[in-house]
Specification:
107 residues; mainly alpha
Length: 107
């Protein structure tokens, strides 16, 4: 089964946006990376939470991932962990190294 790029762009996961308007592409990529990283951390934490009488089963396991993503997006949106700032710095250092390398090659 082949998924066209148009169909992929219309799926909720592809169009789901976190962050703020006016972000640079580097900031957006860093915030999305932070959200994915935090989703994994929150999922691990939720595994140790006692659900009580009202939880359990296949449906609860399915929706737990969505809950973890929502928590992670909220945490990432606050920008307090420093993860996205580190990623932005790394991307910018990489880009400046690339541009410096390109300008030296042009000489």
């Amino acid at each position: 089964m082949e998924i066209s790029s148009k169909m992929a762009a219309e799926t909720p996961s592809a169009t789901y946006k976190i962050g703020h308007s006016g972000e640079t592409p580097e900031q957006r990529a860093a915030r999305e990376f932070e959200s994915v990283f935090l989703t994994n951390a929150v999922e691990e934490m939720l595994k140790s939470v006692d659900i009580g009488e009202f939880g359990g089963g296949h449906a609860e396991e399915t929706w737990r991932g969505f809950l973890a993503r929502a928590y992670a997006d909220q945490i990432a949106g606050q920008g307090l962990t420093g993860i996205s700032q580190q990623v932005v710095g790394t991307i910018q250092a990489y880009q400046s190294g690339l541009s410096a390398g390109l300008s030296e090659d042009e000489k």
